[in-house]
Task: structure prediction
Amino acid sequence: MSEQDYINYSRIAEAIEYIQQHYTEQPTLEEIAKKVHLSPFHFQKMFTDWAGVSPKKFLQFISVQHAKKILSDSQTTLFETAYKTGLSGTGRLHDLFVKIEGMTPGEYKNKGENLTINYSYTNSQFGNILVASTQKGICYMGFSDDKKIAFFELEKRFPKANFIQQTDEIQQNALKIYAQDWSKITKIKLHLKGTDFQLKVWEALLKIPTGNLATYGNIAHLIQKPKASRAVGTAIGNNPIAFLIPCHRVIQSTGVFGGYMWGTTRKTAIIGWEAAKTI
Result:
């Protein structure tokens, strides 16, 4: 990402945060543009380029009332429908598109010892990304506003692994998810380190259709652990694959978007972007 791109992204992130904090006041285009020191014309164009939707429409998408409406309309049928249909269709992640393979007990116990992990940095419309892969699949994908911190997070998950900074075909295929045309993506394989419970939760996240939201309670029911909402929340918080495993689509039962490992502003941006695409 160039220096100018980073400046532009920072401005849009600031605008998104401002909208999120002041949505009940329905701020005008002029008010938001002034907040990020741009003319209304240039702000409208820049925001649309980065978010894929106009500031006015984005304001509508991130409304808490909108989130509540999605939940109230689909809470009882969302996962039943998703499970039965397999979420096949354009613009949706589903269990036929992303395959999760858990690491062996030995790999899990040994913290990545004798495991070679390739990693590289790239960028997306939501910011810089660190993506890492083994010979079996993607093992980590995280937004990296700071490259050193991002690599520290990867290394913390596999403290005994051998790391090589290089891009491979597995990474390149997975990163196509950020492009507009998904027809060129082959099945994405994930090679994840997690407990059986965590793997079940992460697989359940793949069943949330693009443009829809779910609660922690929804996920708990889907994995047939209705009383485990808190444990589900912990597993979601430990999700090692940003965007591909859509933990950003899980919000609080009150309709509040809640936290996100890679920043609440980014979470809001992704939810709004996906809502705009499905509309």
Summary: The beta strands are 98-102, 116-124, 127-133, 138-143, 162-165, 188-192, 214-215, 250-251. The chain has 13 helices and eight strands. Confidence is low (pLDDT under 50) at residues 74-96. The longest strand covers residues 116-124.
